[in-house]
Amino acid sequence: MRRGAEAIFCSIPARIGILGNPSDGYNGQCISSLARNWRSSCVLTPHENRWDFTIDISCGEESSTYKSMASLAENPPDLSHDGLSRLVLGTLIHFQQECVASGLAIEASGFQLKLETDIPRQVGLAGSSAVITAVLRCLLTHHGLGTALPPHAVADMVLKVETERLNIHGGLQDRLPQAYNQMLHMDFREELMIGRGWGAYSHLDESLLPKMWLAHGGTGIESGKIHADLPGRWAEQEPVMVRVINELAWCAHRGKEALVAGDMSALATEINRNFDLRTELFGEDALGENLTMVRLARELGSCAKQPGSGGAIIGIVPDDEFMERAAPAFAEHGWKLVLLEM
Q: Is residue 320 annotated as a catalytic residue, yes or no?
């Protein structure tokens, strides 16, 4: 018997794409940070009995019990449904098959797992990645790996859970700041991605950022639906897409220079340029209400762009009265305005 087993806790914030997205999937560059207003939290409590392999999962109002991790992986449930449990189960199955069964991680006792999140769904804040990263970090600790995997390897495993297990489209930059737990400039040049399998990731101090805001509506559209035609367009080297992706990467490059130099006017210019390029890439119809909200923010005196592919936009707070001025304007459209905790 192992008594007094200590609970393992991990909390992962939402992710904000500041510049460069969606060039990350096409050998571009991005700057992304963490928004600590929202987070996904996982608590894994090992069973006191070392030989009790059952796993009890609680995700909000969803709960389930399985005989063991091995049994779950051998007889996986339907993962096509929506909800938090799908993300958790996909992570458990992937970890069992890729880490435990392969011998990378030692077999461990069963556990109780509780998952909670307040990250708004499908608004471009990498909520799914946050859930999976939190669960994966707890599993790594429970199975004796702790921090043995470098952050880029953790991010890669999260991406595989999303794409291979859950059929969720995800850009490369979505989970990297969450795995590193810091703001990053990310360079996904082809020679790096092909040569070693990951890009060049450099930390940017969050203190370099100005005050920023985020506005979001209700549940947005799954990013995979928005990005569906991009891989084909890139494979064909469509001239418009190739040019836009290259210019988006330069947005991130110039944005990094602006942050280091403390030039917030230049940063605002790049934020606006990023959204305008995104509009050229996807077309106005695909942006939906986001386009209306960006135009509203600009009328109110701020720069604005999407932090991802869902129903949210971000910008720099231009003056002390902006939040008070903008909140009711966004509220008229059913959108909520918040000051970001970066």
A: no
